[in-house]
Amino acid sequence: GIKGKKKKTKTPNPKKGLLHFFPKNMSSPSTMSSSSTQQVNPDLQEERAKVTFIPEKMTLALFNNNEKFLAKYRKTQQIHANDEILRNKPEEYAMGRDEAFKCYLEKIQRYYTKYATLEDGQFQDRDMMWYLKDFKRADTPLESGFGMFIPAIEHLAGSSLGFDLWPQIVNFQILGSFAMTELGHGSNVQGLETTATYDKDTEEFIVNSPTQTSYKWWPGDLGKFSTDTALSARLLIDGKDYGIHQFFVPVRDRKTFLSLPGRKCGDIGPKLGFNSRENGFLALDNVRIPRKYMFQRVAKVHADGRYETVSHPKLYYVPMMLIRVGLVRFAYSYLAKSVTIATRYSCVRRQFSNLDDSEDERKVIDYQLQQGKLTRALSTTYCFAFNALFIESFWEDVLKAIKQKDFEPMEEMHVISCGYKGFFTMLAGQYIEECRQACGGHGYLHASGLPSLMTGYVAQMTYEGDNFVLALQVGKHLLKCASHVAKGKEVKGHAAYLNNMPKLLTETASNIDFTNHRDVLHVLEVRAARQTAALAQKVAELRGKGNNMMEITNSIMQSDMIEAARSHIFYLATKVFVDAVEKQAAELQGPLSTMAAMFGLYRLKENLTYLFAGETSYFQAGDVEKVDQALDSLTSELRPNLVGLVDSFSYHDNDLLSALGRFDGNVYETLMDWAKNHNPINQGPLPGFDAHIKPMMGKFRSKM
Question: ∠ CA 617-622-626 to the nearest 5 degrees?
Fold first, then answer.
């Protein structure tokens, strides 16, 4: 994560405005469009003049006030914008899959051979790993290697194997993947069928795919790209099943790149998105690997077949937890790009006459419904931004604890990361699509940048765990916490508010200011506590009738558990947001506190039932109407700052690759330029027309 620094900063000159913050080549790069100029659309200029804070300060807050890292981010951003090969180009939207592969493999070569640096055997830009997506139009090969394979080697392989492999990994002699998911099993990791049987005579593991459903299926980069994989398989010794363990398995010859004997692998086929990278399948037939290729940080097999546990089994989940932590930042970045495009376009797009009988049509952003769409997405984006900083910092603490052999924080991280992955990705996907719809017909064009953001993002709603299965993990944790409270035991960590459950179940709302972020947070706290209490009571009643917990959690109470988890996670997310807001500079707290209250209110409206339920109703008649009134008030309050808030995300035009989301607002000029000059289908005759349509023209005669 980004570690913040309390450092005295030089205040920018407000008179220089936003163009001081965005260099000239950042606002409208000439390489983006042959017709582009430095002239900013007057409607966008007008909006930027209304902003009540300095966007540069807000940008710094989004980067945890870490000036050094922000400078590094911008340097990498400029590299991608200015390099002829790395720069995103509108022609990429029209590329077929084969062409896209060639394009992005060239970009990989360019970046890592010209710009990436090695020092002490480490890539010095590894702290940029979660941010490199910001500068690319699409996902590229190698991301699975950096995202999952390398963490698996670091945290699970053990010192001996890791030491042997590391020089080859950083020198790109090993291109790795992470092979867990199978054709027949995804979320149920314990049901994986791939086997690794130990042969004492040769001190080798024999790895097999015993059934068709045991084929590895979906791992990124596995089918055509990776030379080796971190593979999950059932460990079998003398007929005994020791459960799922991980192994280093070579897949291809590193010189010829042909599959090694006993391996059948390939790409699984085109997908809804992610088609500039491949997802693979792998079948293994009596593949022998040496004993040392078992990852031995958690357990090891001795030469004589003796099994030994050497550390906590929870370590196996480190790579998956890491990805779930990263998914919080991706939820932020994908949604930030989407709402930036939709907001800027809403300022430039005009439809229908103004109410004052002016000849000018009205800006779309001035319509109440459009403001609602934008502020829902914008407040959520800022919430995700500060929650990303929170969970990244927590992750660093977890890794430090692991080094000290303290595995207790992993349970807390497991619950939070499950909840964040589940509910953040669903919300981000919903609002990305809402941003696309907010741009009308033009939002359907790839030139808007929004279709690729949508199709690229929805995969994250699925991989690394089914969202509802993950939510059930949170629900089970809440039941455990409720049990502790009932027994007088203290609940610690993110659910500590449940210690106040007796009070939260009986109090009633009094003088709530629904425009105040702290008041809204407390209402969310009350709702979460009441839902957890109601869930625990229902489960206790079912247990009293003879139902077992497996039946209750899997068949009877799943919906209740998921909804309790939702309320808990959104209370936590709002609390993180509110706490972060109150640490920012005074001039930023106005728009930030407005968005914190808005985010909380939108989440509150999703389920108000439990605020009226129970022995004591928390809400009274008229409180629901006050929620809607507060949202209207907060929307009006935020209206002057909408463009400043999206500008603060600091995205270069190259990052967005959007005709609608340009910093200069020259939307229509760019749409026409890209259609005429950057659309391959307009550079010559329509393919196939002469061969198939011309010959049939005039050949048919009416029988009448």
Answer: 110
Phi, psi dihedrals of residue 185, rounded to the nearest 5°: -145, 130
pLDDT one-digit tens code per residue, 630-687: 999 999 999 999 999 999 999 999 999 999 999 999 999 999 999 999 999 998 889 9
DSSP at 497: G
Token output for 202: 């040769």
Burial of 508 (0-12, 13-18, 19+ CB in 10 A): exposed
Quick count: other Cβ atoms within 10 Å of Cβ 16? 11
Query: Is 216:268 a contact under the CB 8 Å cutoff?
Result: no
pLDDT of residue 564: 96
Q: How many CB atoms lie within 10 A of CB 703?
A: 4
Q: Is residue 193 a contact partner of residue 182, using CB atoms and an 8 Å limit?
A: yes
Residue recorded with tokens 């198939």: 692
* Whether 41 contacts 664, CB under 8 Å: yes
Question: How distant is the alpha carbon of residue 628 from its chain centre?
Answer: 30
pLDDT digits (tens, 9 = 90+) for 362-387: 999 999 999 999 999 999 999 999 99
Cα–Cα–Cα angle for 27, 30, 34, rounded to 5 degrees? 130
CA geometry: angle at 539 spanning 535 and 545, to 5°?
Answer: 150
Q: How many CB atoms lie within 10 A of CB 583?
A: 12
Residues 6+ apart with CB under 8 A from 636: none
Residues listed for the chain: 704
Contact of 162 with 153, CB cutoff 8 Å: yes
Name the maximum alpha-carbon separation found in the chain.
Answer: 91
Residue segments in the chain with a per-residue pLDDT below the cut of 70:
1-38, 117-129, 354-356, 702-704
Whether residue 499 contacts residue 594, with contact meaning beta carbons closer than 8 Å, is answered with no
How far is the C-alpha of 428 from the C-alpha of 478, rounded, in Å? 24
DSSP 372-431: HHHHHHHHHHHHHHHHHHHHHHHHHHHHHHHHTT--HHHHHHHHHHHHHHHHHHHHHHHH
Helices and strands: H and E segment counts in the chain: 23, 15
Instruction: Report residue 591 as tokens.
Output: 């728009």
pLDDT of residue 422: 95
Task: Supply the pLDDT for residue 125.
Answer: 58
Kindly state the percentage of the chain with pLDDT values over 70.
91
Rounded to 10°, the helix 55-62/586-605 angle is: 60
Side chain identity, residue 625? E
Pairing of strands 204-208, 287-290: antiparallel
Instruction: Decide: helix, strand or coil at residue 632.
Output: helix
Active site residues: 464
Check residue 15 and give its pLDDT. Answer: 33
Q: What is the pTM of this model?
A: 0.92
Burial 67-87 (b: 16+ CB within 10 A, else e): eebbebbbebbbbbbeeeebb
Tokens of 415: 């619950």
Contact 569, 419 (CB under 8 A): yes
Q: How far apart are CA 41 and CA 24, in angstroms?
A: 15
Q: Cα dist. 24→29, 39, 67, 89, 653 in Å?
A: 8, 11, 21, 19, 12
Please state, in angstroms and as integers, the Cα–Cα distance from residue 337 to each residue in 8, 95, 344, following that order. 30, 22, 11
* Separation CA 194–CA 232 (nearest Å): 7
Contacts for 4-12 with beta carbons within 8 Å, 24 or more apart?
4/64, 4/65, 4/66, 4/389, 5/65, 5/66, 5/67, 5/68, 6/65, 7/65, 7/67, 9/60, 9/65, 9/67, 11/54, 12/54, 12/56, 12/57
State the distance between the two ends of the chain, measured CA to CA, in whole angstroms: 76
